[in-house]
Amino acid sequence: MQTNSSAPTNPAAAPSIGVWLAPLLEDLTLFRRDLHMHPELSHKEHRTTDRLVERLEAAGLTPQRLEYTGLFVDIGSGPIKLGLRADIDALPVLEETGLAYESSSTGIAHACGHDIHATVMLGVALVLARMNDDEPLGGRIRVIFQPAEEMMPGGALEVIEQGVLRDVPRIVALHCDPHIDVGLVGTRIGAITSASDTVRVELTGRGGHTSRPHLTEDLVFALANIAVNVPAVLSRRIDVRSAVSVVWGQIHAGSAPNAIPGHGFMSGTMRCLDGEAWEAAGDLLDSTVRQIAAPFGVDVHLEHTRGVPPVINTEAETGLLEAAARAELGPDAVVLTPQSMGGEDFAWMTQEVPGAMMRLGTRTPNGETYDLHRGDYNPDEQAIGCGVRVMANAALRAIRGVRH
Description:
By secondary structure, the chain is an alpha/beta fold. It contains ten helices and 16 strands. It has helices spanning about 20, 25-35, 45-60, 115-135, 155-160, 220-235, 275-295, 315-330, 345-350, 380-400, and strands at about 65, 70-75, 80-85, 140-145, 170-180, 185, 190, 195-205, 210, 245-255, 260, 265-270, 300-310, 310-315, 335, 355-365. The strands form four sheets. Strands 1-2-4-3-5-16-6-15 form an eight-stranded mixed sheet. A hairpin with a 5-residue loop joins strand 1 and strand 2. Helix 4 crosses helix 10 and helix 8 (about 315-330) packs across helix 10. The chain is elongated, with a radius of gyration of 23 Å. The two termini are about 15 Å apart. Residues about 1-15 have low confidence and may be disordered.
């Protein structure tokens, strides 16, 4: 278990959220199911944005729409003490859960848990609004519902460009984790995610008969060499402790077994644990692809989309989340989580202000272990209440200056 501070908590300064959450929890669960049934891809989250705005306005709050999709809302008054961020977009994945409220949009699903993220942060806003109506919070909390996390380099950059982080001194977020039991959260200080790029290599050349490859530019063979040798070269040119990983997800070429095609492409991702190594690996990857392709005489069109750096969890903000989790979920609620090879555009926000992301457990204890970005991902909905309690408690601690 990771511990960042042995300082005692102050229950009077950061009261339990459960009593405020209880009357809202059933409605939040139904809200999440509604989002789940109507998933929307990056930059198309119009209905999702509308539903969030409607619910926040019904609670007497004044949400502000972002350009195109997404929104933010402030609760309380005075200087902003903490920002909380949720992402709201879905994935181009076919849902295979068989749930009564499964996706009504074929080929689109909340397979990464963003419906949970959005619902948790809605719950935080509603809980804090009720508390503020009962007695002023003594500070202001900004809750951000960010679009397009799944589209690199990510909607977080748009949020920053629109000035939403202006005057936000620190920021926190959460991400569903199907490998952690519900009721627990995972944290770590330092990098919690990895840098991630997308790469597409398109080759063209003279096609021909497979009996006479010397009269063609054999781009299938060229693609195969790129697929195998690019990861091998990077593993010898970049410090292995940085764990540079190039993995191909698509290779397409040809339509007949005895014909060498004139066009083909492959695409994949490059991931890296270390931000500095990520920068170096990017330049090296581009030159390596071209050098490997050169002997085959094919024309190369390379699209290398620089994605996101690692999310760097600062010590103070990680401690804030850990203290909130222990206060709400119990003294053993925090587990140390490994650094993920996944990319996350919350990294852009943590480059702007100190911040931290925690892993929200969504696995039913003794239940099935799913994985993210899979059509059968089915998080335990009890995670909603856990997430609201931790994040709302963290907000109160930030406002009231509670040590952690």
